[in-house]
Every structure is written in structure tokens, then in C-alpha cells.
Amino acid sequence: MYFPYEADAPHPNGFADAGSMDAVLDRMAKDPAVRLRVLRRLLGDAACRQLGVCAVPAGFLLSVVIPVYNERQWIRAIVERVQAVPIPKEIIIVDDCSSDGTREILSELEGDNLHVHYQQVNEGKGAALRAGFKLATGDVVLVQDADLEYDPAEYPRLIQPILDDRADVVFGSRFIGDNHRVLYFWHYVANKMLTTLSNMFTNLNLTDMETCYKVFRREVLASIELKSNRFGFEPEITAKVARRRTPAWRIYEVPISYSGRTYEEGKKIGLRDAFNALFCVVRYWLAD
What we know:
- Helix 5 links the parallel strand 4 (89-95) and strand 5.
- The protein has helices spanning 21-30, 32-43, 45-51, 75-84, 102-109, 125-135, 155-163, 185-202, 218-222, 233-243, 271-286; strands at residues 2-4, 54-56, 62-68, 89-95, 114-118, 140-143, 169-173, 214-217, 251-255.
- The protein contains eleven helices and nine strands.
- The protein has a seven-stranded mixed beta sheet with strand order 5-4-3-6-8-7-9, with helices on both faces.
- The chain folds into two domains: 2-56, no CATH class; 62-286, Spore Coat Polysaccharide Biosynthesis Protein SpsA, Chain A, CATH 3.90.550.10.
- It is 41% helix and 15% strand.
- It is of the alpha/beta class.
- The radius of gyration is 20 Å and the shape is globular.
């Protein structure tokens, strides 16, 4: 949920003359400012923060960068879900040389706030994200995978620490309190091992370094040179954000849900990527 900052100003019509609960609910449905005032009064500020009920400043723009490779089965659904999030945004999709018909679907979906960049050679997620970050013009940049494992409805919760000026970077963690699909034990073990090793080098206390949902103030990405082409992007960006000292970037984690998919459903990350991530954890902490 998002609401404009002017929501805190007194509403000209108030609630006293509403006459009935139906009238109040009708006005809440039509006016984000009224919704925010009512929810804050009913739930309190603390509960609103937990639910991701936040005020978005006038002129704010969120850039959603989506790397895509052979996602014909899911691409329409993920675009619809991202479009449905009521936050001012631009959607930047980078197609990493798909060969299953995804490109043809993307050519149909392009529109005013949906831009597609077509890679000429398949290079990997990291390379696709680098291309997308260069095209982003929003105040905040969010990484979204092209499958349905992560829920775009959680964007308000993810961007809230940045809008509250408490964070410069936000990681969405699958392991600190929200629901998730039960799947592969060894994936869980590998994820925990990589996160722990990353924390040892970065001196952070993250619970989910490998999460897709990473959110940045745009100036954070502008100050970092990224090199990884594949899934090494995750440990690389974590190491380079942690290395910042003057001033240090403020990093937050927020709980997210997770609906993982199986290899039969199109999951792509494998053992090779786990070893590459292990190498990148060490490499990008010791040397740029």
C-alpha cells in the first residue's frame, strides 16, 4: 500500500459528516489520503509499518529491473503483478537472449512504463542487471526475478525503510518470519553456508544474502562497478555495499514470503552457480 505525503494534512471533509460506515469506506476506497489516516488511527503507526502502509513522496519513482531468460510460461503473470502494485514506477525488463518465445511476448507487452532491453548474447543474470541498472531513472531501484517465486505485492514493505530514511539498501529475507514453500533441503543448506561465509568476510549479520529482493537508492548503484555476469551478482553486490565506509551504507533486512519453484517448473540455479558464488564471496571481498 502506498499513500502520498499530503495524507498527514487535515482532510477538508473530515469524517464527522460521513453519516455511515459505508460512506467512510467509500471515501477510503477513492482517496489514498483518507485510507492512510483511517489505518493509522485504527492500527497505530507500528502496525502500519509492519504491514507496509507507507507514505510515498510526490514525484517518487520506483525502478523495477527484471532480468529474463526463457520465461515464456511466467512472463505475462509477473508483469501483471508488478503493474498492479499501486506505486509510481517504471519497469525495465532485460531479456538475456531468450529462445523460447519470451522475446515475442515482451514485444507485445512494451508500453509507456514498461521498457524492454534485448541482449544480443546470453551472458547471465548479473550482466542483465548491469544493463537494466544503466537504464533505471527512479529514485529507488528494486530487483525482481521473472518467475513467480517472489511476490511484488510486498514492494511497499521493501521500500519503506528507504522512504523513512532509515536505510540505503534493503534485503528481503526469506528466513526471518514469513511463509515459504517447502522445497529442497540442500538448497537451504547451501544458502545458509554462502550467507554465513559472506557475513564472515563482510562483517554483516544478514540472514539471506542470496535473496532476489534487493533494493537500492539509485546513488548506491551509481557508486559501484559491477562485474559478475551470472549469479555471482549476489555476493558481489553484498561485498561492495558492505565495503563502503565514507559514509557506510545503511543496510536493512525485511521479511518476505517465498514460493520457490522446482527444476521441473523452470528453476535454473544449480551446483555450478553455488561454487561460483563461493568463489565470488572471497574474490569480491579481497579485490574489486
